[in-house]
User: What shape does this take?
Amino acid sequence: MPEITKAPNPKPAEQRPAEERIAEQRPPEACSPSARAPQPRALVKRMREYHPPLGSRTGLRLDFNENTLACSPRVLAALAGIAAADLTRYPERASVERTVAASLGLDAEQVLLTNGVDEAIHVLWQTFLDPGDELLMPTPTYAMYEVYASAAGASLKALPPEDDFRFPFERLLGAISEKTRLIAIANPNSPTGSAASREQILAICERAPRAAVFVDEAYFHFFGETVLDLIGTVPNLIVARTFSKAYGLAGLRLGMLAAAEETQHWLRTVISPYSVNSLALACLPAALDDRAYLDWYAGEVKAARAEMAARFLQLGLTQWPSVANFILVRIGRRHAAFVEALRRRGILTRDRSQDAGCEGCVRITVGTRAQTSQALDAIEETLREIGWEKER
Assistant: This one.
């Protein structure tokens, strides 16, 4: 009879390796390569996605309202002075916040530097919005207001503009309710270039004392009017500024929130202490110091904006008055062909047809006078190429 080999007695479960015990407890499908990854919160699944058409941007960049030329030469000098050892330390923004506050006539406790205004918006929304709270905002406007509101689970009340994209002041006042916790006003607004008046903003702050009234002054330098001086006087007012536009520091990601000291306490509770990088902090004082360069660039843009508006009038293009560094024009059904034909000529513009009320519209950034002259010649050639005719 052949010898029978007995199987060894299995080890008690507690003596076997943990990975073996866990594997036996998993359902068979959980071990397959197609097993599902961890799932996000339901709010994240419902969030509106924002995909800016960046990609390849070779050419004259009249698509994202950036500084179209360069930052101050003093910024490059500040970058060159950064030592290797400077990059080994965590960034400290307090001293630069004091510099910014002094340049703006504010107290240091009223200023918070952020990683671009996008972070400022995110922190503000996270600070003030609970699920079910109401965010009021005129439309069309900057898309990230809605994106971050959806992430917070807030209820969005979008207010269409008045005729000619004018600020919907009366409509906004009438929409304020007990649920209103935040009101977002881009001033000037993008993509329309329109603005609310100081008196209108003050009236909104008074009508909604329990809500944070956020005024995004990203395009202030091309407009010249501000409510920044009211910080500390109007307790629910919060103002944002960016260093991405006129200052030409978009690649460094620098923004600022100005608010009453009590409000800043809560914003600093939410924000990461190291979100603004050392290179940006080293460059900002140099940019602030070069007031002559900033004034020169803003002056170039305002002069070029007037030239662009006059040429569009001659061409018969429908446009809207703008106090920012861009103009919104209606091309009509040929809007996509217009944008593509300009791209082939090395001019980048932004198709805004998907925005509320902007069907057939294209937004065109204003650069220097020389750049604008080049762009206008290309626009005129493009209109002829695509067979554009003014739509009645």
Observations:
- The radius of gyration is 27 Å.
- The chain has a mean pLDDT of 91.
- Residues 198 and 359 are 30 Å apart (CA to CA).
